[in-house]
Structure formats: structure tokens, C-alpha cells
Design goal:
The protein is mostly helical and 172 residues long. Helices cover 80% and strands 0% of the residues. The chain has one domain (2-168).
């Protein structure tokens, strides 16, 4: 597990390539399981007004949109054999970003200090930019598109996922 975590960290630093991930269903299931735990915790903390159905639904939407768009992009590029590695890379790196954002979200939700909120908000925007660079890099390596195109696809995927989950699962 430590080697896999280190690999995803190196991928976050753009020092590894997603094609080095084993394409076995076991690896995808392992990464998916870890992601589900982290994402459920992150959504529970980040959107405290959601009930259990909203939390689980938000995580499911967050899984479906990247999977569908990744599959569609890989199908368009005639490279669907890269889906397991690409999707595993997206989930693994997203898990790391979510872990980094956990204390940031706690600060944003639990402090009245405006300077601290501004700092936490700035860190969250930096993490978004970092995530778009990581996902763009993964798409670039998996489909031979430019880094900017990959980042744009990642941005649209995130935007559609957020819009959908907020509309389907509004805060109570």
C-alpha cells in the first residue's frame, strides 16, 4: 500500500506516468475502495448540511462523471484498453488532493478569522489548479492530447459533476 501511495504522490508531482499502473481489476478495486472512503469523509465534512443519501449520491456522481468522460475520451482516441490505468490514476491522485483539502475545509467551515479563511480559500484554489494540472497530465499521457486540452476536459468534468450533485442533492 505504501508503494501505491508513493506512486500516486509521484503522479501528483507529475514525475510518473499513469501507464505504469497495473491494469488489473484488483488494483482498480483497491484504489476505488480507498477513494470511496476518502471521498465520503470529504463530502461529509465539506457539505455538512447533506444527509446520508446526499453524501453517498454526491460521491457516486463524482465517480460516474469522470468514468464516463474518461471512457468516452479513450473510445474517441481508440484507446479503451487504457481505461483501468487512467481511471485508477485519476482516483488515486484525487484521493491525495482530497486528503490535503480536509483540513482546509475544516478551517473554512469552523473559523471566524477572516485572514485564516482567506488563506484556506486560497489554498483550496491552488489545489484546484494543481488537480487540473494533474488530471490534464494524466489525460495527456493516456490519450496523446495536449496538457491544456486534458486540463480543460478535467475542468468540464469537475464542473458538470458539481452542478449535477448540487442540483440532485441540495443542502437541507
Amino acid at each position: 500500500m505504501q508503494q501505491i501511495s508513493f506512486f500516486f504522490w509521484q503522479l501528483c508531482l507529475l514525475r510518473e506516468s499513469p501507464d505504469r499502473i497495473p491494469t488489473t481489476p484488483f488494483v482498480l478495486a483497491l484504489v476505488l475502495g480507498v477513494y470511496l472512503v476518502i471521498a465520503l469523509i470529504a463530502v461529509t465534512i465539506g457539505r455538512p448540511a447533506l444527509g446520508l443519501v446526499g453524501i453517498v449520491g454526491t460521491v457516486i456522481v463524482g465517480l460516474i462523471f469522470p468514468a464516463a468522460l474518461t471512457w468516452g475520451l479513450l473510445a474517441f482516441k481508440q484507446a479503451t484498453e487504457r481505461f483501468v490505468a487512467t481511471y485508477s490514476a485519476l482516483l488515486g491522485t484525487n484521493s491525495i488532493i482530497l486528503i490535503i483539502l480536509l483540513p482546509v475545509n475544516l478551517i473554512l467551515l469552523n473559523t471566524d478569522n477572516e485572514s485564516l479563511k482567506l488563506l484556506a480559500d486560497s489554498v483550496s484554489w491552488v489545489c484546484l489548479g494543481w488537480w487540473l494540472a494533474i488530471a490534464g497530465f494524466i489525460y495527456h499521457k493516456a490519450t496523446n492530447i495536449s496538457l491544456i486540452q486534458g486540463s480543460a476536459i478535467a475542468f468540464v468534468t469537475e464542473l458538470l459533476g458539481v452542478i449535477t450533485s448540487v442540483n440532485l442533492f441540495p443542502a437541507t
